[in-house]
């Protein structure tokens, strides 16, 4: 065999000349901090496992983020109990309390929950008595991971719930991988989850183009980000930083992650108020009927039958029929409850629609056909 | 023989009737009888757990065969073990006994079983569960593969004592998510690798690397499992196991299982055209023999080499014995049948409802179909090891069995049928792998880095790891920090790496006659000559013309046609020697082994009329050059030898010799004949002399030509014997090739070239 290097060289020639990039960041960053980090408010943090970077921001109450003020977290947290109950199997998960929530969002180097996906930035927020705090940890290279994770663990200690967006299936499993890979087996109870992706889907699946956090906050929470680095760009930007060591690549990622954490807190207020029957008069009159209906169903599932009923009542006077899917489902609901007087007008209304309602259920499709043919025949 | 039903009482009786049929017996070139072998057993070892002994007793097992006891002891002694035994010798107990023994004593212990196919995994789970039930022990055995429902996966990961899976699943689902398998990896005591011989060539080279990754993960979780391997008979089981798992292993090959008398009948179809050396079709002869067996009530398995042949033979046989047996009792079996149907056929064979089965080598592996009485091999299965495996499907522990080897007209079959002693007298082939093939190795280093960062001082294979890691860091796949290398790409590496396909990207063939329908695949190396634009592509006997070849997208669009010609493409092959690793000079012959670059480019294609073979037109092919860097072995003839004949004669001689060698090479290698290529050149660039090159048709090589370099002498000797022994006048498809290709003197020229060399050396 010719030398390994020679063969590797031929391999490279065959794969059409790899780009010659400067070999800059291979050296281990030491105790000093790049001045550009300092200008972004980032500090060097050290613990017994080593160093990493920390950016800490304090938002004194009252602090408004979009429609909601985070000061209301204190009052709303307990209202989230039904969501927590649905998402956590263990009966012993305590009721959420504002001081025991950790709002969490990670930025990772890749996709999926495999062992090679590394969270390079962990953003988390929590309430203190008079402030909301957002902390963001960053590792300058994978060797700093252990120190960062230890720091996160110290913040998890007195928290009962993780508030996330898809964190139950993504952020948390990825973090668990990292704990195991760094030789830690977490003992004791797992944190409870308040994963807001699920309620968002329940409410907005049919009325928003997507349930991505950015879409939800812009159209329902009144939050405008302006120039935001999309989350999907974060891995690329981090690799650029690894290659040339320039912190500027990460500026946008910091801002994006910070806003995500704040939005999670805003969502908590939003859902808490909703469950409290406080959906706002403007929303009641402006939201599409479909959303009203889905919200009412969601409230019903979460033990707020009374508030749900109020929304169902609202629907009776709505003119915006949309494709009529909600009306059809609502009619079925009234029929089950024996309220034929309510069901009939809705069916008649549905039967006037030129097209069947958007639905995947073939039985429903079939009954729509029956109803329209009866209505048209009579 | 019962005169009314025409059913034979036994295989012996049927054979004695066969001997009285001269029209068949004249085609039998050799009749080999292996005497019956009694069982050799020992009592159950005293250390066996009483529950295990009880369960075995319930199954009627009170003694162990010698090999079962030997492997049990070796495992108890802490060794890695490979057990080599033929079909139906109770080999699963060799590894199940120590595993169950350990699990009975330690509920936290875990074992991982690897089988090359899903069907084998399911068989195994059924057997283990039966034993666990008999022992009344709570031992949970589960398969974990693509069919496992997501809902039970978590339970298996946490609570399964024995997880049965395949290497592909290990590679793409278990290892990259090892953090979900903490329980398994922390407590793993045994890793079972059955059908070891199936892990050879490219697949085996990949699997060896998957095992390197597996061991790395086990070390991370602080466990050091024992490997228990089982293999069919190959020449180098111990060496193969050691290369595959990277540990030294104890060999257990003292087979104590009994066997009935076994007849091996070599059958050569009669010559129907002496001049052209054409024999009667082996399909028709196989069918005749199988029908005779089936009509006499003898349960028979027929092996054919391709899926198409399976279907042809099946149709013929069902038609022939329809009245006696009904079509349902003769079944086909091959890849592409749905799992449910396969299970039904296996069951039918075991309980005797199905009297005959026609199969590809899909039934060669250890799927439980019981033991049949007769086996008909349509064509040499390609290796001695496969032949014994397939023939082992017939053979009961008591009573006789018979195997017919029906030769086809290809040179390898003809060589074996005329030299039965060669076949009977030699051990099976070696299984070869080349885990350090640079491309395969790099692929798995990526996967391994994804699973755990590499650290200075780590090793992974025989090559210098640091150089490889630095290379990957320069390619921006890994990121180096101090003395560690981390995976630093967005992608999930295992997804793009398949353990099984030789050339990763195949061309798919889309029939546009009616709508769009994918009808087949052609590998990357075959594509330029088979599916260039205007080529006539044959699929299941139907002609299609290629209308468009989308080379970057790897798609060929074809339309059904009906024409009276086929196309033949010229491929200009340029070989460049990159590095010579080994060299031997014997005066008249110089042979070398090393690295080659093979550049091939199709130039023109010819349209050739069917039957008359006249050239009725041609056209250019516009396709880019393909480059393959691989390992090769080549030998060149001396100047004196070259001077003895004209360039044209030399050309014919080399061509004829190459035709023989390409068929003989697989005799020594357990590989597909397509894995190795032979190219003759009258004046080679590298040596300036007449040269014959062999190379591995896989980037980086997989160790095949290296083996050929070693056995060069035998290879030429066999070539000479084959050409001399062939009954044709001046060349036929069974030796140097048809006279249309090598000319009227081809046979003579090839032979004299060979003899000149051998006398000179």
UniProtKB/TrEMBL annotation, chain B:
It comes from the Bacteria. Residues 288-439 form the Helicase C-terminal domain. PROSITE patterns: HELICASE_ATP_BIND_1, HELICASE_CTER. GO terms for molecular function: helicase activity. Residues 72-252 form the Helicase ATP-binding domain. Keywords: ATP-binding, Helicase, Hydrolase, Nucleotide-binding. InterPro entries: DEAD/DEAH_box_helicase_dom (IPR011545), Helicase_ATP-bd (IPR014001), Helicase_C-like (IPR001650), HRQ1_WHD (IPR055227), MZB (IPR018973), P-loop_NTPase (IPR027417). Transmembrane segments: none annotated. CDD domains: DEXHc_Hrq1-like, SF2_C_Hrq. This is ATP-dependent helicase.
């Amino acid at each position: 065999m010719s030398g390994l290097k020679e063969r590797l060289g031929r391999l490279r020639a065959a794969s059409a000349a790899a780009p010659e990039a400067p070999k800059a960041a291979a050296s281990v960053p030491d105790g000093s901090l790049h001045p550009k980090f300092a200008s972004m408010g980032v500090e060097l943090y050290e613990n017994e496992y080593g160093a990493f970077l920390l950016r800490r921001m304090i938002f004194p109450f009252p602090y408004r983020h979009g429609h909601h003020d985070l000061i209301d977290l204190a009052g709303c947290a307990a209202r989230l109990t039904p969501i927590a109950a649905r998402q956590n199997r263990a009966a012993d998960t305590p009721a959420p309390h504002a001081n025991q929530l950790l709002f969490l969002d990670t930025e990772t180097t890749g996709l999926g929950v495999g062992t090679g996906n590394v969270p390079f930035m962990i953003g988390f927020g929590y309430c203190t008595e008079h402030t909301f705090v957002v902390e963001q940890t960053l590792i300058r290279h994978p060797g700093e991971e252990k120190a960062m994770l230890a720091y996160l663990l110290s913040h998890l200690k007195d928290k009962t719930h993780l508030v996330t967006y898809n964190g139950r299936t993504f952020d948390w499993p990825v973090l668990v991988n990292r704990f195991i890979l760094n030789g830690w087996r977490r003992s004791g109870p797992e944190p409870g989850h308040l994963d807001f992706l699920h309620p968002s889907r329940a409410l907005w699946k049919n009325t928003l183009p997507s349930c991505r956090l950015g879409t939800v906050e812009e159209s329902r929470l009144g939050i405008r980000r302006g120039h935001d680095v999309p989350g999907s760009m974060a891995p690329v930007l981090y690799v650029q930083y690894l290659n040339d060591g320039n912190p500027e690549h990460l500026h946008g990622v910091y801002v994006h992650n910070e806003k995500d954490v704040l939005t999670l807190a805003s969502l908590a207020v939003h859902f808490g108020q909703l469950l409290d029957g406080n959906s706002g008069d403007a929303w009641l009159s402006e939201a599409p009927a479909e959303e009203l209906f889905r919200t009412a169903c969601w409230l019903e599932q979460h033990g707020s039958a009374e508030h749900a009923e109020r929304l169902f009542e609202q629907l009776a006077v709505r003119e915006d029929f949309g494709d009529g899917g909600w009306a059809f489902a609502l009619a079925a609901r009234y029929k089950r409850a024996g309220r034929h007087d309510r069901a009939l007008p809705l069916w008649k209304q549905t039967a006037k629609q030129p097209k069947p309602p958007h639905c995947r259920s073939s039985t429903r499709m079939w009954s729509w056909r029956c109803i329209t043919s009866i209505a048209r025949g009579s | 023989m019962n005169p009314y039903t025409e059913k034979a009482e036994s295989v012996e009786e049927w054979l004695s009737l066969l001997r009285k049929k001269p029209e068949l017996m004249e085609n039998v070139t050799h009749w080999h009888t292996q005497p019956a072998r009694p069982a050799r057993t020992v009592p159950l070892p005293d250390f066996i757990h009483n529950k295990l002994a009880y369960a075995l007793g319930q199954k009627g097992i009170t003694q162990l065969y010698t090999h079962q006891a030997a492997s049990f002891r070796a495992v108890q002694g802490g060794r890695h073990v490979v057990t080599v035994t033929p079909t139906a010798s109770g080999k699963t107990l060799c590894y199940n006994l120590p595993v169950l023994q350990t699990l009975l004593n330690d509920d936290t212990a875990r074992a991982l079983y690897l089988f090359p196919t899903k069907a084998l995994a399911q068989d195994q789970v059924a057997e283990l569960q039966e034993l666990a039930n008999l022992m009344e022990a709570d031992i949970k055995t589960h398969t974990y593969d693509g069919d496992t429902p997501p809902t039970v996966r978590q339970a298996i990961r946490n609570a399964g004592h024995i997880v049965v899976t395949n290497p592909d699943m290990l590679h793409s689902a278990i290892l990259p998510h090892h953090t979900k398998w903490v329980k398994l990896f922390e407590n793993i005591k045994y890793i079972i690798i059955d059908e070891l011989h199936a892990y050879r060539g490219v697949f085996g080279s990949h699997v060896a690397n998957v095992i390197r990754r597996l061991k790395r993960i086990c070390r991370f979780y602080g466990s050091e499992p024992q490997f228990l391997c089982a293999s069919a008979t190959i020449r180098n089981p111990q060496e193969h196991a050691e290369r595959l798992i990277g540990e030294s292993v104890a060999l257990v090959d003292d087979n104590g299982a009994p066997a009935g008398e076994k007849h091996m009948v070599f059958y050569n179809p009669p010559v129907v055209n002496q001049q052209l050396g054409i024999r009667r079709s082996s399909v028709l002869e196989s069918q005749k023999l199988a029908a005779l067996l089936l009509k006499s009530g003898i349960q028979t398995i027929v092996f054919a080499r391709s899926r198409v042949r399976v279907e042809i033979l099946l149709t013929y046989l069902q038609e022939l014995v329809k009245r006696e047996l009904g079509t349902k009792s003769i079944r086909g079996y091959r890849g592409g049948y749905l799992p449910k149907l396969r299970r039904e056929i296996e069951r039918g064979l075991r309980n005797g409802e199905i009297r005959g089965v026609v199969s590809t080598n899909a039934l060669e592996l250890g799927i439980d179909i019981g033991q049949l009485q007769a086996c008909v091999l349509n064509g040499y299965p390609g290796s001695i090891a496969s032949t014994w495996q397939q023939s082992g499907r017939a053979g009961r522990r008591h009573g006789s069995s018979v195997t017919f080897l029906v030769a086809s007209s290809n040179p390898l079959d003809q060589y074996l049928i005329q030299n039965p002693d060669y076949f009977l007298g030699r051990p099976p082939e070696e299984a070869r792998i080349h885990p350090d093939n640079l491309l395969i190795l790099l692929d798995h280093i990526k996967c391994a880095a994804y699973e755990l960062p590499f650290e200075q001082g780590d090793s992974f294979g025989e090559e210098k790891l640091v150089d490889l890691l630095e290379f990957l860091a320069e390619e921006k796949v890994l990121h180096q920090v101090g003395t560690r290398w981390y995976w630093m790409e967005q992608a999930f590496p295992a997804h793009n790496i398949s353990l099984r396909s030789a050339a990763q990207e195949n061309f798919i063939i889309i029939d546009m006659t009616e709508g769009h329908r994918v009808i087949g695949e052609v590998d990357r190396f075959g594509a330029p000559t088979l599916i260039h634009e205007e080529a006539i592509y044959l699929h299941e006997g139907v002609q299609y013309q290629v209308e468009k070849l989308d080379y970057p997208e790897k798609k060929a669009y074809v339309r059904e046609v009906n024409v009276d010609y086929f196309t033949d493409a010229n491929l200009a092959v340029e070989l460049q020697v990159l590095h010579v690793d080994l060299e031997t000079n014997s005066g008249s012959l110089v042979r070398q082994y090393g690295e080659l670059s093979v550049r091939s480019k199709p130039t023109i294609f010819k349209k050739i009329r069917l039957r008359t073979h006249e050239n009725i037109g041609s056209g250019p092919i516009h396709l880019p050059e393909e480059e393959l860097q691989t390992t090769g072995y080549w030998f060149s003839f001396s100047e004196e030898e070259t001077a003895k004949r004209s360039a044209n004669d030399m050309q014919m001689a080399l061509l004829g010799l190459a035709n023989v060698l390409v068929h003989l090479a697989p005799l020594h290698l357990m590989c597909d004949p397509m894995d190795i290529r032979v190219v003759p050149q009258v004046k080679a660039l590298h040596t300036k002399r007449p040269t014959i090159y062999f190379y591995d048709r896989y980037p980086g090589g997989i160790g095949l030509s290296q083996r050929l370099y070693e056995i060069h002498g035998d290879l030429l000797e066999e070539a000479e014997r084959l050409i001399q022994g062939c009954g044709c006048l001046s060349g036929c498809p069974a030796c140097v090739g048809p006279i249309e290709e090598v000319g009227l003197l081809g046979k003579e020229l090839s032979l004299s070239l060979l003899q000149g060399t051998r006398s000179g050396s």
